[in-house]
Specification:
The protein is 74% helix and 0% strand. It is mostly helical. It starts with 5 loop residues before the first helix and ends in a 5-residue tail after the last helix. It has a single domain, classed as Orthogonal Bundle (Tetracycline Repressor, domain 2), CATH 1.10.357. The protein is elongated.
Length: 243
C-alpha cells in the first residue's frame, strides 16, 4: 500500500530516524546542510556579493529538494522552486538558466552531503567502540535521511526521462567510486582482505538501501532492529581476523 501523503510521512518518519540530532522542521534540516557549504570569503563588496550569491544558490537548491520530495520530480517546476525559495522567477533564472541546471546542482549536492555525513559519522566512532554495530547504524541513518528520499525520487524518474538519466547515470557512477574509496579509507582494519571488504560493503548497501526503499513504498511491518542485528553479525564474521 503506497502512502498517500508522502511529504507528511517522509518528514514524520525520517525526522525520527536521521540519527544526526537534526530534529526540528524540514527547513531547519535543509538549512543546516545548505549553509554548511556556503563559506565564500573575501574583502569588501566583492566578498559580500560572492557570499550572497552562494547563499542564494544554496537556497534554490534546498528549495528544489523540498519540491522534489513534496511534489515529485515531474511536478517540480521553476515557478514552484522559486516560490519555495522566496525568490522571483527572474532571480532564480539569474543563478540557474534552466530547470535541468538546478537538477544537476541538486544531484551533486545530495551526493556530496551523503558522503560527508557518512564520513563524519564513522570518524566520530571511538576506536574502542563496537565498530560493526555503529557503522551499520550510521549507514542506516544515512539512507533513511530526507536527502535519500530526493535521490530515490530522481532515480525512479530517470527510468523514463532520458535527459535526467544522462545527468544521473554518470553522477551515480562518480558517487559510487567516491563512496567506495571513502569507506576503504575509513576502515583500514579491512585492508588485508579486500574481497571480504567488498562483500561486507555490498551486503550493507543492498540490504539497507532495500529496506529504505521498502519503507518509502510500503506500509510493511517487520523487525528492523532484528535485521540490522543479523547484518552486524555477518559483518563481524567477514571482518579479517588479523587486520
Amino acid at each position: 500500500m503506497l502512502v498517500s501523503n508522502r511529504y507528511d510521512f517522509f518528514f514524520a518518519y525520517y525526522g525520527k530516524l536521521s540519527g544526526t540530532g537534526e530534529q526540528g522542521s524540514w527547513n531547519q534540516v535543509l538549512k543546516k546542510k545548505s549553509t554548511a557549504g556556503t563559506q565564500a570569503t573575501g574583502p569588501g563588496e566583492n566578498g559580500w556579493q560572492a557570499r550572497k550569491s552562494a547563499a542564494t544558490r544554496d537556497q534554490i537548491i534546498s528549495s528544489a529538494i523540498r519540491c522534489i520530495v513534496e511534489f515529485s520530480y515531474s511536478n517540480t517546476t521553476m515557478i514552484k522552486i522559486s516560490v519555495k525559495a522566496g525568490l522571483s522567477r527572474g532571480a532564480t533564472l539569474h543563478h540557474f538558466p534552466s530547470r535541468m541546471d538546478i537538477i544537476r546542482a541538486v544531484v551533486d549536492y545530495l551526493h556530496d552531503k551523503q558522503i560527508q555525513a557518512f564520513r563524519r559519522a564513522i570518524r566520530e566512532i571511538p576506536k574502542s567502540a563496537d565498530m560493526a554495530h555503529l557503522a551499520v547504524q550510521a549507514y542506516s541513518a544515512n539512507v533513511n535521511h530526507p536527502i535519500y528520499i530526493a535521490l530515490f525520487e530522481l532515480s525512479v524518474a530517470a527510468r523514463t526521462d532520458d535527459e535526467l538519466r544522462e545527468i544521473l547515470h554518470p553522477a551515480h557512477q562518480a558517487f559510487d567510486r567516491e563512496w567506495y574509496e571513502t569507506a576503504w579509507d575509513l576502515f583500514p582494519e579491512w585492508h588485508s582482505d579486500r574481497r571480504s571488504f567488498d562483500l561486507a560493503l555490498n551486503l550493507c548497501q543492498q540490504l539497507m538501501e532495500g529496506m529504505a526503499i521498502s519503507n518509502l513504498t510500503h506500509a510493511r511491518n517487520y523487525d528492523k532492529d532484528q535485521l540490522l542485528s543479523y547484518l552486524e553479525e555477518k559483518v563481524r564474521e567477514l571482518r579479517p581476523s588479523n587486520p
